[in-house]
Amino acid sequence: xxxxxxxxxxxxxxxxxxxxxxxxxxxxxxxxxxxxxxxxxxxxxxxxxxxxxxxxxxxxxxxxxxxxxxxxxxxxxxxxxxxxxxxxxxxxxxxxxxxxxxxxxxxxxxxxxxxxxxxxxxxxxxxxxxxxxxxxxxxxxxxxxxxxxxxxxxxxxxxxxxxxxxxxxxxxxxxxxxxxxxxxxxxxxxxxxxxxxxxxxxxxxxxxxxxxxxxxxxxxxxxxxxxxxxxxxxxxxxxxxxxxxxxxxxxxxxxxxxxxxxxxxxxxxxxxxxxxxxxxxxxxxxxxxxxxxxxxxxxxxxxxxxxxxxxxxxxxxxxxxxxxxxxxxxxxxxxxxxxxxxxxxxxxxxxxxxxxxxxxxxxxxxxxxxxxxxxxxxxxxxxxxxxxxxxxxxxxxxxxxxxxxxxxxxxxxxxxxxxxxxxxxxxxxxxxxxxxxxxxxxxxxxxxxxxxxxxxxxxxxxxxxxxxxxxxxxxxxxxxxxxxxxxxxxxxxxxxxxxxxxxxxxxxxxxxxxxxxxxxxxxxxxxxxxxxxxxxxxxxxxxxxxxxxxxxxxxxxxxxxxxxxxxxxxxxxxxxxxxxxxxxxxxxxxxxxxxxxxxxxxxxxxxxxxxxxxxxxxxxxxxxxxxxxxxxxxxxxxxxxxxxxxxxxxxxxxxxxxxxxxxxxxxxxxxxxxxxxxxxxxxxxxxxxxxxxxxxxxxxxxxxxxxxxxxxxxxxxxxxxxxxxxxxxxxxxxxxxxxxxxxxxxxxxxxxxxxxxxxxxxxxxxxxxxxxxxxxxxxxxxxxxxxxxxxxxxxxxxxxxxxxxxxxxxxxxxxxxxxxxxxxxxxxxxxxxxxxxxxxxxxxxxxxxxxxxxxxxxxxxxxxxxxxxxxxxxxxxxxxxxxxxxxxxxxxxxxxxxxxxxxxxxxxxxxxxxxxxxxxxxxxxxxxxxxxxxxx
Amino acid sequence: xxxxxxxxxxxxxxxxxxxxxxxxxxxxxxxxxxxxxxxxxxxxxxxxxxxxxxxxxxxxxxxxxxxxxxxxxxxxxxxxxxxxxxxxxxxxxxxxxxxxxxxxxxxxxxxxxxxxxxxxxxxxxxxxxxxxxxxxxxxxxxxxxxxxxxxxxxxxxxxxxxxxxxxxxxxxxxxxxxxxxxxxxxxxxxxxxxxxxxxxxxxxxxxxxxxxxxxxxxxxxxxxxxxxxxxxxxxxxxxxxxxxxxxxxxxxxxxxxxxxxxxxxxxxxxxxxxxxxxxxxxxxxxxxxxxxxxxxxxxxxxxxxxxxxxxxxxxxxxxxxxxxxxxxxxxxxxxxxxxxxxxxxxxxxxxxxxxxxxxxxxxxxxxxxxxxxxxxxxxxxxxxxxxxxxxxxxxxxxxxxxxxxxxxxxxxxxxxxxxxxxxxxxxxxxxxxxxxxxxxxxxxxxxxxxxxxxxxxxxxxxxxxxxxxxxxxxxxxxxxxxxxxxxxxxxxxxxxxxxxxxxxxxxxxxxxxxxxxxxxxxxxxxxxxxxxxxxxxxxxxxxxxxxxxxxxxxxxxxxxxxxxxxxxxxxxxxxxxxxxxxxxxxxxxxxxxxxxxxxxxxxxxxxxxxxxxxxxxxxxxxxxxxxxxxxxxxxxxxxxxxxxxxxxxxxxxxxxxxxxxxxxxxxxxxxxxxxxxxxxxxxxxxxxxxxxxxxxxxxxxxxxxxxxxxxxxxxxxxxxxxxxxxxxxxxxxxxxxxxxxxxxxxxxxxxxxxxxxxxxxxxxxxxxxxxxxxxxxxxxxxxxxxxxxxxxxxxxxxxxxxxxxxxxxxxxxxxxxxxxxxxxxxxxxxxxxxxxxxxxxxxxxxxxxxxxxxxxxxxxxxxxxxxxxxxxxxxxxxxxxxxxxxxxxxxxxxxxxxxxxxxxxxxxxxxxxxxxxxxxxxxxxxxxxxxxxxxx
Lengths: 936, 936
Known about the structure:
Distance between the termini of chain A: 40 Å
Largest interface: A-B, 49 and 48 residues
Number of helices of chain A: 38
Largest sheet of chain A: 8 strands, mixed
Strand content of chain A: 15-25%
Structural class of chain A: alpha/beta
Oligomer: homodimer
Radius of gyration of chain A: 34 Å
Helix content of chain A: 40-55%
Shape of chain A: elongated
């Protein structure tokens, strides 16, 4: 989802970029060339400065690059930033074509540099109040680490020597600055292999038998500098001793770095246009380690952990940023600064308030103090926990900084996942392996290699991670018993992933490197070999796998969260339902805010071992009487199950799907001789007959086989048993005074005749069970029971004008609809979908996010046709896409009534439903405004 | 197809029926009641008679029932028929409601009977010139054997006795007539079990130690009659001795027989409306066995075997119809009658000519002569061989009785199949089993239970029938070596069926009762047990299986057939292409009239054993170099194959599809240790590695898996090799001066990006091979090469507006499109499609005839969208439906350019294409007429 948001910004910026400058390759006019040098944080009469810029932030990013845009905004706000000037992105193409910088640009850069000297009272290329600068790249969209940076420009051998001499206690500092400059310059500007400089440093440390750079003396560092300069000369290159020349060469090198191989590759992968270019920012260097009145720190405008409204952060005096990070010295809490430098502290709090107010969001701010003077280096929206994010959103609404509607965009979907699942505490532990993050949450436990072992550990009260090549319906009991699931194969919608999410279990799938040896009950991953029973930890939100037990933190459903989701529900038009198969899941769904059950899969009720045994007998019976006997027995279980689930949802509706999977999914293993013997004997058939029957049930393409309503037609007694059980379950609740609401759903319909045949037959069965019921109740039960079908085949979409006539509702099964529309089995597609993504043939896995152009077009057609014949028909979705925000946007736009997803996706779906409706209202009001404008 | 035509008539009649009488249950007015008795073949002043009826044939059938309608037409033509009167179908509901016949009907029936007496000079209920009548049912649509008939009405004990006395030589005849009347009456009218009467007859024969009825004396028969009458009385029922009463009761009983259980069931199965009702026809009986001036016979207006224009038939004097059929006496050729009864013969030829002219088709006529007087009992379009049918059609056109366009409907598609395949000579042999008629033609040969054995027999020069549970691509060589194929499972589009038709082999599939024992190399079917090597015969046109070798007759492609298909091509708008994979098949396709190859499947070229071995190595290679080596080797074979096929088609285009099936279809059996060892060693990998690799290639749903262009993207070297081979094959032919035409087709595309990625890459490969070619040739080759894609996924249909942009042609793969649109695997659907048909949930198997409402709607959408972006795009179909007439009608209506089918379907497709276009022109001209009429 983050990706998606980025894509949107991206699109927006692309659009702006086109508007601003249709072809960046056209040389800029002289006037525009002159305006391509902009000062940030100080003014120079002849030049544009931040204060004069009129662009909004995306426009600024396109013109100045992302980094300088941030500085420009701060400068406009009169927040103290280290003065800087920017050579705009437009110059990049010009430079790359001409291979030199236009005169006017050089002239204006010089003006800008002189202005900077005046502003700081420092001098570039001087040992007296020396001004050092950095030269940094900055593309409109962040390309982290792809392009080059040079620090400490302005030093030469003479200047460094003079500075060292003037302040002997800083000699080491200045020589080290100079050494770094030489190395970076040689690498970036002169194109020399930086390896030789690193080796020189290593050799020096070895010869002095020290481990750390900081242990090298000023003298050693001076020696290194001179050695490096010699080395450069011997390559036929030159490190200029003229600081201005250094600066110009560095600016050119940074422009050139737009076209390094890695940058080009990165842009191809991320679809960033070639002609955008990078900007170059030349910024004064400030040093928090200059003296005891200097320092550096990081501060949040509110507590990023729980969201409390109180500034929060740390700082170190006489230190650089890296000292805070390295942890060699213990930083002070930010309040302490009030004692050390009360004026500066005061200034900082004012700045923080200003930034939070301007950006209207909690900020994460880096600052440096040089000689009591405060500089803000960077501000950005604070990364915070989900709890804090929601807390802050609710605070901002209370403080009237934010409308409730706007608060909806303040929490990311990933963060909601964090709230709902136990998560790993931050850790430095290196994962032993990675797979796909199939179902969020962290879980630790013993490795179990089969479901039986998992159940055994669970019974002994041990936490379990079920580790399988892949899971199948037979593993259900083992999955239920486990705390987490790890598989070697499969994608985001593989069996393990779907069931894992449904159960709210942490789940990592497609961990390709994972090797499982059944023979010696062990696994191999990332070079480690672990036995069954050893403990591992998986992080289903990140797809990572660790050895041992790592500490986790639990679910946090705060009062602020309650309030926040209340707002979401207010904005939503879509009703959010849950996919739930048990009373426990039903209750969980309610807690998480579902307003009904959109999909209750009856097949999962047959997986409990005793019932599974009975079910198998039913499938395998040759004699009608045997079948009927078993069906009767199963009926009792179903009445019990249905009654409990309905009761758990009280007045909220429960949509129960009739048996769907092909029968062979229920068969015992061919190798389970014990069970086979038992079944054969109870059915009075030979083992051969039994095996033949099992063989006959196998299918070449089970996805396209004998399942869903096709079973209902060939095995009418099963469907009849199920609807009768539903009728009895309704009766039971009504007689207890609980007026439950039932929806009966017929799966895999491809033609109206198929549906109508079953409807007629099943409605008769259902009503036949109510003959004994009190007539008022009977009427009431019939009123509370709706009949519908699942649309999961292209043909059902095309013929929805027939199918929709005689049902109360239709629900799209988008998983299967995607499979059939694409002709793509989710079990088999992992083999090539990876490459498809790499080649950009597909952008997003259609099983994760609805394929609007293909599957979406069929859905649109189906909705239109069904509503044309039955305007009151209820339209829903109960595939995996029901929990995917961008798919939800589509369903909302297509006027769906309900979406249904796994319980732990419900809060995400609630938020997504709210956002979708807000987007739609917004686009409608824009359209109507445009219309009105058009009329004037 | 016959079914289809019947359905159409059915629909037409239904429509008429509605128009004529929207609700048949409304009691008729007295006037209409009066008109419900109609005389046929004679006039009665107060009544309607055939001559007065204005209805056309379908309307007559609705009013009078099918049988009487035929009599009415003959009567109108003044062809001598035994006089009859009809009680119309409308009376059926009236009678069934009232349980008696209205007075006016009884009165008019009496009038009609009196008229009949006058017309014949006979008297009903008299021993002097006795009139005997039959009472027969007749529904608007034939329901053979479903309702009741009573013969010989008019006899009583006294009358019979008197007749016997008057003509002692006919005593046996009259008593036998009376006996039959009593039995039928007791059964049909009185509802007694006819078993007791049959036993009485058997007992009598036993007691006289005779075997045949005809050996019983007049006396014995008289005894039997009296015994039967006693038996009826003892049941408390009565056989009326009043002939009029007999008649009325019989009429009522026949009306009642509309509602017998079997009739109701038959109507449900065949969708015949309940309220149509049966009519009752009372007809004078005529006796060809009355004397030596009487006789009976069957005659065709032209020779039904080869079509010669010359009447053709046989007759027997002093005989009944059953004597001709029984074969106890040898009948005379019809010409002989000219000598025996020249006047009657002359009259017969006049009648025959009149009937042929009126019905404008060759007639098959039953006649009886009673005392030199000719009666025509029945006329109908003559059943004839395909050769005769085509001969007749061409004759009729020459004789200006028929327009060429109308000749198109004179041959059924089944008949064309007959022409093309060797067929069984008519036989009385009882089949030992039945399956589905998957590929027409008859074939005999030794049973081979696996492809190896089939190849072995074939090498030894023996004819072979390959008998398998089902076939798979590995069986290809064995199938090619066989004369016919028989499988136990699978439907009309199973592998065996599709490949069988493609190869033009006789094929019977889905012979469910067939049991194959691999262990003792034997099969069981229909109670017989046969060993491998025993001979059987299969009739692929009928789905029958016989023991031993039965005589067959060979292909007959006569001059008349040539002319006939020439006309068909003239009327067609669609170009008919063939699916052909080898030069032999290409040549056969041309002979059968294909104007190009619409689908050449490259995968079949890899099934030859040596190549298959190489191909397997390519699939299983871990090392890139090994792969490339094998790909190079295969390239040579492909150039050879492609060059030969292109050459065989000369200037006609050849559309070659790039590799389509999933790779695992090519894998060796896991049990074939020898080959596995060979492969592993040649690839320098361990057996375990090999097996792992094979395992990794398995798929859960192969139909939705890693195949088609998905392989092209993950294994670009294979597709590149194939297009390079095509380029070299084109070059080879062009350099020989043969300007061949190539179409390259990319299968299983789901998105335009996928297609465009491959097009770009493959066009480059193709062109790279032409760098060495003379530049004029090069240009020419590029001009003669078109690029296209197969549309076989719903998503490709929906996004055809993108997919169609950059290709020269698209071809619908309707087999797979049907599978994905319905979510229905053709391999697995046999389990329930039978029941679906039985329950009328589907009417026609969508794999046999295109599902217009679903798949058709997607195709319509795709064509519209593709043409919108690319008006010149060529649209074709190459699925099985390309050879199905009703599907062809759809493709023609949707403005397709080409249809492609297996070679032996080509003539059918040519005819179907002509008919489809004629239908379309017809409906257009009707529409334009309606429009014009509207304007007036």
